[in-house]
Design goal:
Rossmann fold; 21 strands; alpha/beta; Alpha-Beta Plaits; about 15% strand
Length: about 750
């Protein structure tokens, strides 16, 4: 069947013939059938099936009728909604050349472009408007887009628009459009949301299935390479060098991944450009234009380029990151193998995600061909064959001037040296291939078959039996090496962020990490013995993200090297101390009110010494009374019976630490507004919790004099100042206000 058999309008037939279109695709033939004309359609068609030309012919048949051209442009007659800016601009270009002989005006309204220019173009008039949902709603809000004359509306890639969250915008546009319009809805799949949308806004829609799933992407060859995840970038380089496609599209999962991979490929010498959602529309248009014009050969993109883009001479689609589902895999791969051309879709699958990838391929009904990734030796062998063909082809186009230069060179150099120099010059322009040691090592190991999953009713696993991780031997002290990290419990160390940090710094995976011990000031962990050397070499490099975190190998040897280092052992107390500890029990009983033991009072002169020896035989807890801590430190002074005494004039007089004959008196005011709690003894340089009698308090500010421990002759209500006489203290104003307040309270009472 030819296009002439479908009897399209004469202007459209001329445009198709000029572009070389002779036979329609299945979706184009279905839409132009007489029984489907002027009816709402719900079309299920795979990407790359020629949908743009199909609904362009349908719109022209609806609006042009038997006329040769459209009339003057005014309010739009047709509206096409696309999910992405790139797809909308591509549809606008396709419709422009298809309807050029009919003098149709096609405008594009997409985000990232000059909104004022779009408003001026809409005000000047248009026959067709192609846009994204968000920008079209903006024009409707500002009343710049008039849908009163709309006769046909097309939703291209409707399932993708729903996945992107454009349901509210679509319903807003469909509500504002006239009810008697014709609605064409194109979608790769017909999920529940698309069916509900069609039932709500279409009238007696005819459902068409243009491409059965088993016939989709017959021109695409699917391949898969199993790789080590850390060598993904090197695998991309070797794949591009081995296949040498005229145009390649590399998909990444994130924007940061696109930026990093594009910069890495460009640094190696590839003609690579990137496209992602964080770029402006002008930058995205320039990147696509560079690929179409041949200025770039590699396009690195996120899934924003997975829908509807028609890139000529695209021979390879490389999935650097695994697609999230089978549908995304099909849409990504559909960028190649279009319009009868052959293409290759290649997926890089990490070893740990092979089963997940196989389930995805099965869900997409794709027969994947597994093969090892190209090595550096294979790339060099292919380069040699290409260089021979390339240089041989150059020799066929020689003129007399070139031959004269060749004769002059041959007079001074041998032919072999000249040809070798020519080969070296051509080889220097090619990016160098990469070595893949981990990928080659992993590919040589057979994939472990886990077998069917054990049912819950089966025999339980023995208690305490080690569970292997992914078929690997568990890392224990016998087959592991201890490392330390200078972050511990005091810095909120937690395995949830320590394990990713160790994997990133040491270039290891989780299965190569054994036991982790979090100590107070450091963390120790086991690394598999076969990976310890590589791990130690990797962690020597300073990490720019966490330069303060250091990882080093524990130098101790033997079993249990990773255990907590023990503090220096305290000498065992003499037997006399143990007896003294036993003698302290009756003293505690007397303090609690129970009957004292008669043996406890036989040697009162040794009571203090016995207490000190017993205290030194055990560690001092933090909650122990202050005097006991001092006794444990070896102080020979006897504790006072009452460390605090009431003095005349409303003062409390205390000896620091509660010891008789120790230090000076400390005086605290107990009058109105003063705290009734006793002053806590100060710690000083000796660290034993008692003031130094031989050292005065250090000045707090320049010009301050050391304050005396006791201010003799102080009257009640008088305040002490630490400043020298004749100078005003920084807090004297505060003290004056306090005295004034105390006097007022006394007067009121």
């Amino acid at each position: 069947m030819n296009f002439s058999d479908l009897q399209p309008s004469a202007p459209l037939l001329r445009s198709l013939t000029r572009r070389g279109y002779e036979q329609p695709t299945p979706v184009q033939a279905l839409i132009l059938q007489p029984e489907n004309l002027r009816r709402d359609l719900l079309v299920s068609a795979q990407t790359g099936s020629g949908k743009t030309i199909a609904f362009g012919l349908a719109l022209a048949a609806e609006l042009l009728e038997d006329r040769e051209s459209f009339g003057p442009a005014a309010a739009p007659l047709g509206l096409v909604i696309a999910p992405t800016r790139e797809l909308a601009l591509q549809v606008q270009r396709e419709l422009s050349w298809l309807l050029a002989d009919a003098h149709a005006v096609v405008r594009a309204c997409v985000g990232g472009m000059d909104v004022r220019r779009e408003q001026r173009e809409l005000a000047a008039g248009a026959h067709f408007v192609v846009g994204t949902p968000g920008r079209l709603c903006d024009h409707l809000e500002h009343k710049k887009l008039n849908l009163s004359q709309l006769r046909a509306l097309v939703l291209d890639e409707a399932d993708e628009m729903l996945d992107m969250g454009f349901r509210e915008e679509l319903e807003r546009i469909l509500r504002d459009a006239p009810a008697d319009r014709r609605t064409l809805l194109f979608s790769a799949t017909i999920p529940k949301g698309i069916a509900e949308l069609a039932g709500k806004y279409q009238r007696d829609a005819v459902r068409l299935a243009a491409n059965p799933p088993e016939e989709a992407h017959q021109d695409i060859e699917y391949r898969a390479h199993a790789i080590a995840w850390r060598e993904r970038e090197h695998a991309v380089v070797n794949t591009l060098r081995h296949l040498e496609p005229r145009g390649a599209l590399v998909f990444c999962a994130t924007r940061d991944g696109v930026t990093h991979l594009q910069a890495s490929l460009a640094e190696r010498g590839f003609q690579a450009v990137g496209i992602s959602g964080e770029l402006t529309q002008a930058e995205r248009v320039r990147a696509l234009k560079a690929l179409r014009d041949g200025q770039a050969r590699v396009l690195v993109a996120t899934d924003v380029a997975a829908r509807g883009l028609d890139l000529p001479a695209l021979e390879l689609v490389l999935h650097a990151d695994l697609p999230r589902d089978a549908q995304v895999l099909q849409h990504r791969s559909g960028r190649t193998g279009r319009a009868g051309h052959k293409g290759v879709a290649l997926v890089l699958v990490p070893f740990s995600k092979r089963r997940e990838a196989e389930r995805m391929f099965k869900a997409a009904s794709i027969e994947m061909k597994w093969s090892p990734v190209a090595t550096a030796e294979q790339v060099r062998a292919v380069d040699q064959e290409r260089l021979v063909r390339e240089i041989a082809s150059v020799c066929e186009e020689l003129n007399e001037e070139d031959l004269a230069v060749a004769r002059q060179l041959l007079a001074d150099h041998s032919p072999e040296r000249l040809v070798s120099a020519l080969v070296r010059q051509h080889r220097s322009r090619l990016p160098a291939p990469e070595e893949l040691p981990e990928t080659m090592a992993g590919a040589s190991k057979p994939m472990r078959d886990k077998g069917p999953r054990r049912e819950l009713s089966g025999p339980p696993r023995a208690s305490g039996a080690p569970t292997p991780r992914g078929g690997r031997a568990r890392v224990e002290e016998e087959n592991g090496v201890w490392f330390r990290l200078n972050v511990g419990r005091s810095a909120n160390a937690d395995p949830r962020w320590l394990v990713p940090l160790i994997c990133r710094r040491g270039k290891v995976v989780k299965a190569e990490i054994g036991r982790i011990q979090i100590l107070n000031s450091e963390t120790r962990f086991l690394i598999a013995e076969e990976s310890a050397g590589r791990f130690a070499a990797a962690v020597r490099l300073v990490d720019k993200h966490d330069p303060s975190i250091r990882i080093e190998q524990v130098r101790t040897t033997g079993r249990g090297a990773g255990r907590r280092e023990q503090a220096p052992s305290v000498p065992r107390p003499p037997p006399r101390a143990e007896e003294a500890a036993a003698e302290l029990a009756p003293a505690r009983q007397r303090k609690s009110g129970s009957r004292p033991d008669a043996d406890a009072d036989e040697r009162p002169e040794s009571k203090g010494r016995v207490r000190r020896e017993a205290q030194s035989a055990r560690p001092v807890p933090k909650t122990q009374p202050f005097s006991k801590a001092r006794a444990a430190a070896g102080d020979s002074r006897e504790p006072a019976e009452r460390p605090w005494k009431r003095a005349a004039g409303g003062y409390r007089v205390a000896r620091p630490g509660g010891f008789k004959g120790a230090g000076e008196l400390r005086v605290t005011r107990t009058g109105a507004g003063a705290s009734q709690a006793p002053a806590r003894p100060r710690r000083d340089e000796d660290g034993a919790g008692r003031p130094r009698a031989d050292k005065a308090q250090a000045p707090k500010r320049p010009g301050d004099k050391p304050a005396a421990r006791v201010d003799a002759g102080r009257r009640p209500g008088e305040w002490r100042t630490h400043r020298a006489a004749g100078s005003k203290g920084w807090n004297e104003g505060k003290k004056d206000r306090a005295r004034l307040g105390a006097g007022k309270r006394k007067a009121r009472s």
